[in-house]
Design goal:
Elements (H helix, E strand, L loop, with lengths): L1 H19 L8 H5 L9 E5 L5 H6 L27 E7 L14 E3 L3 E2 L5 E4 L3 E4 L5 H12 L7 E7 L5 E5 L6 E4 L7 H7 L11 E6 L2 E6 H6 L12 E5 L4 E6 L5 E4 L7 H7 L8 E11 L16 E6 L4 H9 L7 E6 L1 H26 L1
Parallel strand pairs: 1-16, 8-12, 13-17
Antiparallel strand pairs: 2-3, 2-4, 2-7, 5-6, 8-9, 10-11, 10-12, 13-14, 15-16, 15-17
Helix pairs in contact: 1-9
């Protein structure tokens, strides 16, 4: 009788332990979404299926940078003199009584001159000359033509050093960042990046930001490679910034890897995310219960097909069906999404059976001791 009482106590303790909550690394799907039909819940649940995809495609994207881009265009293939450039002028004159060249000399170098905001430079004896908006050779010809009024035999040599309006900045993410003069008016973003030694291989999904005036445009380097029409032409004063994609999503629960994951490409699908997180833990995860948790702003709410009905949304994926797998390939992950892999019911059942088995083992041990 004493042994029977001990066995009963051990078995009851084991079952009580199982009923109070199993030691698990993730919740069951029913524990998270089971109460979604209740009027008190503050989240909506949407199974990711072929029927849902057209509606979700109309919903606002969240946590995404909304930066436009400028398509490519054509400009002059030569260098152009602009305001802020520095012009160096050397005058040659063989006339013995030249007003421009000192006695006994044949040439003179004028001090470097910065092109004024109005496009002018000042040359002694002839005054202001407009040299902006033309190639350096045309500017040289203008200066020489004006000088013939005081020195008919004078010849001019002009060299140009680009100023701020004739150069662009390349910032971060490349081998050699810095300020680069524009060789012509067809200088493009990819040409500038190539001049800077190319994009660093350490960057994940490198992003391009073009700052022009008070506006910022953005795209990815891979998109520029794939769509040549987007390799936009630069203008003087542009700043091109190369940086790593700062978007990310989280994975927790019975995933292969619980971590923060950066976006590895412009668009990450749910199937891509499943691969990035190392899949589903074979011993614990429930492939029928992969959840994607997302929050929408209140402005995105809609009772129809153009938005969710609540701010907090749980999308459910079933990766054991063909429709679930194909739909996962077309469902887009948003930055800051949480991919939650729920615990398998089978794992929980096995844990209970193991605990019950342990109870029987302990009872047998007690019986052996009594004997």
């Amino acid at each position: 009788m004493n042994r029977l009482a001990r066995f009963a106590a051990i078995l009851l303790s084991t079952l009580a332990l199982a009923s109070c909550g199993l030691p698990r690394g993730a919740a069951l799907q029913s524990e998270i979404v089971g109460s979604s039909d209740s009027a008190a819940v503050d989240f909506a649940v949407y199974p990711v299926t072929r029927a849902l995809l057209p509606s979700v495609a109309e919903w606002p994207q969240v946590n995404q940078p909304h930066l436009g881009w400028i398509t490519a265009s054509q400009g002059s293939r030569g260098r152009m003199v602009t305001a802020g450039d520095t012009v160096s002028i050397q005058i040659w004159d063989s006339n013995e009584s030249s007003l421009l060249v000192p006695p006994g000399a044949r040439q003179i170098m004028l001090p470097d001159m910065r092109v004024s905001p109005s496009g002018m430079i000042f040359v002694p004896y002839v005054g202001d000359i407009n040299v902006a908006g033309v190639p350096p050779e045309a500017a040289r010809a203008r200066v020489e033509e004006r000088l013939t009024s005081v020195a008919p035999s004078a010849q001019v040599q002009l060299s140009l050093q680009e100023g701020r309006s004739n150069s662009v900045d390349l910032v971060g993410g490349v081998t050699a960042p810095g300020t680069y003069p524009m060789p012509d008016r067809n200088y493009s973003v990819l040409s500038l990046i190539a001049a800077g030694g190319g994009v660093s291989e350490t960057l994940s999904n490198p992003q391009i930001r073009l700052q022009r005036g008070g506006r910022i445009f953005g795209t990815s380097i891979n998109r520029l490679y794939d769509e040549p029409d987007l390799d936009t032409r630069l203008i003087g004063g542009d700043q091109v910034i190369v940086e790593e994609d700062d978007r990310y999503f989280l994975s927790i629960g019975a995933a292969g890897d619980e971590a923060l994951h950066p976006f590895t490409q412009d668009v990450v699908s749910a199937m891509d995310a499943a691969s990035i997180i190392g899949g589903i833990d074979d011993g614990r995860g429930n492939p029928e219960g992969v959840l994607i948790l997302r929050e929408y702003p209140s402005s995105a709410l809609s009772a129809g097909e153009r938005g969710p009905r609540m701010e907090r949304v749980v999308f459910t994926l079933d990766l054991t069906t063909a429709d679930g797998l194909f739909s996962a390939r077309s469902f887009q992950i948003m930055p800051k999404d949480v991919v939650y892999v729920t615990e398998s019911y089978v794992t929980s059942a096995q844990t209970i059976l193991a605990l019950v088995g342990t109870g029987f083992g302990l009872a047998k041990l007690a019986n052996t001791i009594d004997n």
